[in-house]
């Protein structure tokens, strides 16, 4: 394990061998292994740990464990105990996103104070595989790019091994670690992928982590080359006006579609956008606005988008809301497929028509299916990493019974049907 770690760092992150690194140590197997490997390799490093205080005594036990490990290795430890819930409430963030911001703000502060040349997190190849499936479920072109080894100061030196390999190595050297109870909760999408999808993939494809890691490396290389080529193409194909790009009629739709995808638009949306010819049509994505104008297409930074509320009084019906095409139909119970992606089923007999599709309103709450408590719609969208500029384009599906779903991410507990 040590030799593989050293070879990976030498090839992909050589600067870690010379400068001082700041290691994010949570107490889990991956971060404990990273700390141990840095120590055994003789690299210079300090450790940062955040106690979010979200799991009571469990959080305190994690902090005590990390402190014990650092004392054993003689490594400097810096601890932050932020008021996570208060910070989330004051900044109108989900707890998950608030914790992320607190984490990286703390890392950057410590990096400057300690004059560290890198911030290291313990993402490994199973995380990379999990990342691919999460972004595939979101229909994102970034899925195949995986988790990069380096992004500015942020480095991931554990991407040479899988989660299972790391745990086997820790057991072989008698090193303990902590398991967070939240990692087993199916409330989070990452855990659904980890516990419900990846085990079946491993059954038929045991080498999945290694193969998909190489695929993601190739995907990032290809994407970077494509970005450079398309950026050069856009310099001559588009007319530049302040912060906007204008592509005149006659521009290669294939090239323009590729350019839009690399800017963050999903492929189906890009295809649908380029099929539009009526001036005024707008598509919002990733903080940007693509619109049909006289004589071509324009791409610019998005203002806060507005979407007209759509009302449907009967089924079958097909409507467009932003980038989403929504199909409503009445189906016999015998024909329901509960495993179908992007399909939600509701009890039509009890449904109070009409059905309304609208943008979320500040303060909107609903009870997600499988949960007992309510959740803010805005927080749900944040959990799915939907940019603030794109949130109004995710329709809230509502009827007289209440909120049915926040499309395309989560249905509510209203009008359930058992399978």
Molecular structure report:
The protein is 39% helix and 19% strand. The protein has helices at 2-12, 29-41, 57-73, 84-90, 95-114, 125-137, 163-172, 189-204, 208-237, 253-262, 267-274, 377-383; strands at residues 20-24, 44-50, 77-80, 118-120, 150-151, 154-155, 239-241, 244-248, 282-285, 288-293, 296-301, 310-312, 317-321, 324-328, 355-358, 365-366, 375-376, 396-399, 402-406, 410-411. Strand 10 (288-293) and strand 11 form a beta hairpin. The mean pLDDT is 89.
What descriptors fit this protein?
alpha+beta; 12 helices; five-stranded antiparallel β-sheet; 20 strands; single chain; six-stranded mixed β-sheet; 419 residues
Q: Count all strands and give the number.
A: 20
- Mean pLDDT comes to 89
Helix coverage percent: 25-40%
The main pleated sheet reads as: 6 strands, mixed
The share of residues in extended strands comes to 15-25%
Quick one: overall form? globular
Runs in which pLDDT lies below 50 for 5 or more consecutive residues are: none
The structural class is alpha+beta
* Number of H/I helices: 12
Gap between N and C termini: 46 Å
Alpha-carbon Rg, integer = 24 Å
Q: Strand order of the main beta sheet, please? A: 3-2-1-4-6-5
